[in-house]
Amino acid sequence: MEFMKKVLSAFMIEYVHVSLFPSEQTYGEVNQLGGVFVNGRPLPNAIRLRIVELAQLGIRPCDISRQLRVSHGCVSKILARYSETGSILPGAIGGSKPRVTTPNVVKNIRDYKQGDPGIFAWEIRDRLLADGVCDKYNVPSVSSISRILRNKIGNLSQPNQYESSKQAPTQAGLSYNHIYPYSYPNAMSPNGKMGSGPGVPVTAGHVNISRAWPSAHTVTNILGIRAFMDHQAIAGAEGYPPKMEDWSSINRATFPSAHAVSGIDKSAIDADIKYAQPSSTLSSYVPACAYSPSNQYGVYSGPGSYVTPGHPWQSQNSSLSHPSSGMTMHAGDIHSPMPFKHPSREGDRKPPSPLSKQLQQEALSSVHGLNLPTSSS
DNA sequence: GTCGTAACGGTTGAT
DNA sequence: ACATCAACCGTTACG
């Protein structure tokens, strides 16, 4: 059975590639629903957007999953993420956790050691906490302190050994925080993972990064907003990294007809299709790019409207606020009276949608020109 | 049938 | 240049 699935999967891939893109070199895998994906890589923004968009139309996640041929787990994840953050974007991939052994910390450790050469690492750790040099989230481990003592401080007869070879601590700290704008306490998501997006109300705090993520990722802004946005004003405002993955053919397989949906013009979708990762055009709605090396962490760091201290559904006092926070849909968009957040859980699963079945069908069937069968249930 | 989620194998980027 | 690590990804399977 597993073998058959593999064979079938391989066949599907081959089929998709050969029959649809005989001359294009592409890659990807086909999931159980027949959808094409690239393992390890986020879905294109166009699809992510569509998922949220359809959900806002009241279409059930299972139907979205089938229609877009995206696993329901993924649909669930994207919707959950959106409901929490208002962002359709994936998180920042790669990179390392912020270093805790900043020059300032090292300096303090050295001071402690100089003041008391017999001090234990755990004592240093306690002092770092007591003195407010670190908090419980970024205090170095005892082993780290030991390593610092061994490697960076070692010979205390050369007290300036470290500083002479490193930049000034404050400066380094600043630059560091600029790269990792989230502060530890708030950057910790409930599950303890770093920067996983949902519920990461990174206050500017001591970081003071005023890079307000304008929440243009929000569907509020994305859906149908483009029509009245000054294209020229926003064009070129974003520079995505040149790294583009060859999603074009894959996405064309999924979206053979990416025409306007809910105000998103074809160029927006196409640009995403070109790829996928933050496109120059879609970036009009998605200006902060998780993939931009210079700002990828900023995606989740902005104190702006995309993060919601407190309740994610409250208005962020922004025109680009979350859909459920009094968003103003443009013509052609859906005025959704329902709370987007898991309506099915609110006890009003039936009817699951404010829309008629027919409207939902139309929404689904017009998604990208495909007339895929929707749930027969 | 639907949905949430852990496990898994994968990619990415900083160190 | 390469390896390691830890973040993220979407799919799959299970409950």
From TrEMBL:
It comes from Hucho hucho. Keywords: Developmental protein, DNA-binding, Nucleus, Paired box, Transcription, Transcription regulation. GO terms for molecular function: DNA-binding transcription factor activity, RNA polymerase II-specific; RNA polymerase II cis-regulatory region sequence-specific DNA binding. Residues 26-152 form the Paired domain. One of its GO terms (biological process) is anterior/posterior pattern specification. It is found in: Nucleus. Residues 310-377 are annotated as: Disordered. Pfam families: PAX (PF00292). Residues 315-325 have a biased composition (Low complexity). GO terms for cellular component: nucleus. Residues 355-364 have a biased composition (Polar residues). This is Paired box 1a. The keyword Nucleus applies.
